Amino acid sequence: MTEHIIELIYLVASALFILALKWMNTPATARRGILAGEIGMVLAIGGTLLQHGIVDYKWIAIALVIGSGIGVPLGLVQMTAVPQRTALSHAFGAFCVTLVGTAEFYLRTPNVQPFMMSVLCVEVILGGLTVTGSLMAAGKLQEVLPQRPITYKGQNFVNLALLASTAVIAIYLVRNPGATHLYPVMVGIALIVGVMLVIPIGGADMPTVISLLNSYAGLSAAAMGFVLNNKLLIVAGALDGSSGFILSVIMSKAMNRSFANVVFGAFGQVAAAAAGAQEARPVKSASPEEAAGILAAASKVVIVPGYGMAVAQAQHKVRELYDALTKRGIDVRFAIHPVAGRMPGHMNVLLAEADVPYDRLMEMDDINGDFPQTDVSLIIGANDVTNPAAKTDQSSPIYGMPVLDVEKSHTVMVIKRSMNPGFAGIDNPLYYMDQTLMLFGDAKVFVSNIVKELSNTHG
Ligand code: NAP
User: Fold this and answer.
1) Cα–Cα distance between 66 and 70 in angstroms, integer?
2) In this structure, are residues 268 and 427 in contact, taking their beta carbons and an 8 Å threshold?
3) Is 255 in the pocket of ligand 1 (CB under 6 A)?
4) Which contacts (CB < 8 Å, 24+ apart) does range 326-329 have?
5) Can you give the pLDDT at residue 99?
6) pLDDT in tens, 331-352
7) Which of 39, 169, 234, 455 sits at a 20 to 30 Å CA gap from 411?
8) If DSSP codes are grouped into helix, strand and coil, which group holds residue 412?
9) Angle, in degrees to the nearest 10, between helices 2-23 and 231-254
10) Which residues contact 140 (CB under 8 A, 6 or more apart)?
11) How far apart are CA 246 and CA 244, in angstroms?
12) What three-state secondary structure class fits 147?
């Protein structure tokens, strides 16, 4: 009887996980998606706790308290720290998978069927490399580890050789599951592979790598589902694995990079070098009052948010600006670049938080054709995603990355604090163009001053 109830609970949880992924696809249903995922997870845990196999709840209760103690503060981090927080979650998930796999190996050895041993090896190899890879990624993003790629000659060969050696040991273990002395060697090498795979990858590629690690964590959890004969784990792991992979592909595409280039390309090194070679060139700047005047005289405005808006937490002021301009009958839309900010959907989340209507948010491909008819493009803390060098300068590290064609609008205004480069570490020729005005200052303060000017002088 209990078995049937558990199966039913798992079925509902699986459906909720699938719905969660679907609903998280668009800002309009994203909150519902999160709720569905949360309910699904509570059901999954509840269903698992009903299992007959559990003889003592004491350790589970202790783990629950420790897990919540770590999870609650992690859930409260600043939005800008979410990528490294996500990396830590993957590390924890993968650590758990590796520990469970290890426990199962020692409980079952030497009587492990070849299929079971194969999935167990996949589980702990992927799990092990995800633990250390994710910790490295989190460290790089939090800047406790150096962000720049660390490379040496023959690096890819060494990494592939290490990975191949885990595969060889795994095959041996499948044939000789009693060879317990080889098991720690295999897990140890997997842990080293995680570190080695991430050190040559620059900070700029870290979010892509994190979603790739997400995918590995999901696959290892699915393998664990086979080992434990738990269908829900197989479903949830497969969903996690495939969605992480799809996200990595979307992000690579948005940066015009191949997967191989992200994983083996040591991106970020060139960028750092280019940043040092900047020369001082004249730019035109304007005051909040002048900016307000230009905006008030426009009929079509496109706002381009970027990482700086997130840092300044300017989204609510941006919403006020949107209201002030719309009230005057000005058509205001937002151009959302797929990798603006530091994580996928970063801008959508912030603007949704400030209740900017979803139908005003335009994807890059949908708005790029409209820039020639745009009076003012107002860039708020975005840099790389507007850099025309990506289209024209073959030597640029971001050459080929699709960017927003803001330079085609009649006037471009850029809010940022200085002439410092963005994430890719390179200069932006947009700032020196005739139609560009630099609005130097913190995004929140500057936008707020423009709103004040609009209501005082131009209202
Ligand atoms: P960006 O190129 O990093 O530029 C952000 C700009 O914001 C900086 O130039 C900075 O200039 C300005 N800024 C910082 N704090 C500010 C503040 N308080 N007020 C005003 N301005 C401020 O950002 P982006 O255009 O959004 O591009 C995102 C970058 O991240 C791309 O290179 C992308 O490839 C990379 N990336 C993103 C993802 C993702 O998932 N979204 C993933 C991987 C990589 P000042 O210092 O002069 O103020």
Assistant:
1) 6
2) no
3) yes
4) 328/296, 329/299
5) 97
6) 999 999 988 998 878 899 899 8
7) 455
8) strand
9) 10
10) 146, 147, 198, 203, 206
11) 6
12) coil
Query: Which of these, 197, 187, 84, 96, lies nearest to 135 by C-alpha position?
Result: 84
Give kind and range of the element (H or E) at residue 459: none
Ligand 1 site, residue 335, Cβ cutoff 6 A: no
Distance between CA atoms of 235 and 21, rounded to whole angstroms?
13
Residues 270, 257: Cα–Cα separation, whole Å: 15
At 456 the pLDDT is 83
For ligand 1, whether the C-beta of 16 sits within 6 Å is: no
Among candidate residues 205, 240, 384, 427, the one labeled active-site is 384
CA 421 / ligand 1 centre spacing (Å): 8
SS3 51: coil
- Rounded to the nearest angstrom, the distance between the alpha carbon of 425 and the centre of ligand 1 is 10
**Mean pLDDT, to the nearest integer, of 60-86?**
90
User: Residue 436 is encoded by which pair of tokens?
Assistant: 């560009």
Measured in Å, residue 384 CA sits from the centre of ligand 1 at 7
Question: What type of residue sits at position 191?
Answer: L
430: left (phi over 0), alpha (psi -120 to 50) or beta: alpha
Mean pLDDT of the chain: 91
Give the pLDDT of residue 23: 95
The first and second tokens of residue 387, run together, are 């850099």
